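Suppose a colleague, Dr. K., hands you the sequence of a protein chain of 287 amino acids and asks what its three-dimensional shape might be. Before reaching for any lab equipment, you can write down a predicted structure in token form. Begin with the sequence itself:
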Amino acid sequence: MTTSWSIPNSPPDGPQVQPCGPFVCRIYCQRMNEFPSFDLTGQVALVTGAARGLGRAISLALAHAGANVALGLRDVKADGGLAREIAGMGREALPLQMDVSNLDQMSRSIEETASRFGRLDILVNNAGVAPENPAESVLEKDFDATLAVNLKGTFFASQAAGRVMIRQKRGRIINMSSQAGFAALPGESVYCMTKAGIAHLTKCLAVEWGKYGITVNAVAPTFIHTPGTEEYLSHAENRADVVERIAGLHRIGEPMDVAGAVVFLASEAAALITGHTILIDGGWTAR
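The predicted structure, expressed as tokens, is then:
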């Protein structure tokens, strides 16, 4: 005798649901009864550009959510006490010499992380540079230096981590785009180009690696209070212009505003989200 199973509680007058086997139905019911989880306990994350600003906040937020964190640092001796702070949360921190424009350092760092912890669950491609330069004044060396970190670094870090995650059949990659990838900022044409490229790379990798259980997403922040924006925002006219352009909330962001979105994308709560860039811009691009 064959038992027919169907998804429970389907409306009697609604569309007919195809019968499914006991295993499929059990998984469906389990999903329906589980609340979203943002817990990262036991997972291993690697954050590039971790020493300060967004990278520091993201590293701390991932540790707070339960992850052990490998810290990609341009100078491994200059983490500003970040490793100690993560250890104080009861998590393990692994400082790494990782200049993302140096492909050998990058690949070694990812290999060392996977070897040390036995896995790599989360990669956050945070490292980036944002030189301000009118388009007519950009030199080739400046162009190449920006692409080497923002685009080339993001791609090859994703490639190295992706190889580990493909073997695991699971992983989360979170890239750092910017509202500058969606709105033109005068004097930052090369930076804007790289951040737009990251948003599209995110889609490409998501489609290519989804079959391995890997999700690839990005966050795109507006102006955030960090050491990198401090000088620009110290001028009253610049600050007023930025606050006005952040059309919905009219406030400059804090690093943890971005870190929260990264933790979400790294968690099981975001399991069905991939190829997406979340704009964290307070309404700048909503105009």
